[in-house]
Amino acid sequence: MDDGIRQHLETGVPYKDWVLNSHFQPIFSLAHRRVVGHEALLRGYDGSGAPVSPLSIFNEGHHHLDLLTVDRLTRSLHIRNFVRQTSREDRGWLFLNFNPQVIRTGHVKYFNFTRELFRFHNLAPDRVVVEILERRIQDEQLILEAVEFYRGLGCLIAVDDFGAGQSNFDRVWNLDADIVKLDRSLVVQAAINPRASPFLSSITTMLHQAGKLVLLEGIETEEHARIAMNADVDFVQGFYFARPSPFLSNRETISASIEQVSSALLCAEKDAGARQTLEMEEHVARFLAVLNNFELKSKGSQEYKAFLFVDYLRNPTVLRWFQLDENGVQVGKNINKSLLEGGMDEFFSPLGDAQGADWSRRDYFRRAMRYFGKPQVTGPYFSLPDAQTCVTLSIALRRNDGEIRVYCSDLIWDGPARPELITTTCGG
Length: 428
What we know:
Distance between the termini: 66 Å
Strand content: 15-25%
Shape: elongated
CATH architecture of the largest domain: Alpha-Beta Barrel
Largest sheet: 8 strands, mixed, barrel
Order of helices and strands: HEEEEHHEHEHEHEHHEHEHHHEEHHEEEE
Number of strands: 16
Structural class: alpha/beta
Strand order of the largest sheet: 2-3-5-6-7-8-9-10
C-alpha cells in the first residue's frame, strides 16, 4: 500500500468493513476563469486499500437506518474535509448531494442534524449548494419541504443531471433552483451530432431567461470545453480541467487551462468568421444581382419571375426565394429549389405553400424593415418547408409603384450556431 492511500485511509472514517473519505471535483466559472466551488464525492476503501464503489455503500437495498447513517456520515465527512482546507473568508461553494430517500421518515430530525452540522463546523450556509437529483424525485411535497428548509438556512439549490431520463422543466420551476446542472449526455451528443449544439444553446438560453445559472457536467475533452463555451453556460465541471482529488484545486492551474481553451476558441471563431464573411458576401452579391434583373412592378407571371431565378436557385446552398409585403405577409408562392428538383419531402409538403403566410414576427422581416434598403442576414434557425437549418437573406425596398416589398432568400446553413458569428458587412 503506497503512502498516499495509507494517508487517505488514516484521515477517513470507518464504516462497517470500509473506510470512507472525500474527494472534491472543482467547478469553474468560464467568465471568471477560476474555480468557484467543489463538488464533494464519496470514496470508499476496503481493508487492503482497494476502492469500493459508492453505489455499494449507498445500496438502495439497505435498511433505511443504514441509509440515514451513511448519509449523515458522508455529509459530516465532506463538510469537515472541506472546512479544513478553506477559511471563512474563502467564498468558494461546497456542492453537496442530497438524497431524497433519507427524509422519507423522520425528516424533522434530518433537518435539525444538518443545521447543527453547519454550526459545529462554523460553515456559513451560503457557501453550500445543495444538489437534488431531479430524476429521483418521487414525493414532490417532501422535496419542496426540503428545498424550503435549505433555502431558509441560506443555502443555494441546484437541480442535478438535468437532461437525462425523465427530466422535467416543471420541476425546475417548482423547486425554484438557483443552478441547473446539465447532464453530460448533452455535451456528448453535441460532440457527436452538430445539430445537437443549437439544442444545448437553446436550453441554456431558456434557463438564463428564467433566472437560473447553468452548469454543464462531463467536460472531458477540449471539444467539450469549446461546446460549453459556445453554449454560453456559466459553469463547467469535468475531467478535462481536473479530476476529483482529496485536495481542493489550485486556482492558478485551472485559470491557465480555461485561458488556453478560450484563446484557442477565439482564434477558431475569428477564422471561421472570416470565411463566413467571404461566403456571405458572395451570396449577398448574387442575391442583389438577381433583384437588379427582377421586375419590381407587379407585371409578369409567376412562371416568368421563376425563370429569372433559375441560375440563382441552381446554387447548391440556395433553398428558395420569396417576397413579403410591408406587413410581413407573403406575396405569391415560394420560388423553391425543390420544385426544380422534382418536389419536396412529402412529410413536410403541407408547409410548402406559404402564400399569404404571416412572417411579421420573423427576424428576417423585422431586420429588413428596421434597416431599410440594406441587406440583412439572420442567425441560423429551423426552416419549416424543408425541415433543416437555414439562414435568411432579406432586404426591404420600395418598388416603382410605391409599394414596399421585403425580398428574402433562404440558404442552407451548417455553420456556427451563434448568430453573432455571422459577421457580414451587408448591414445591421
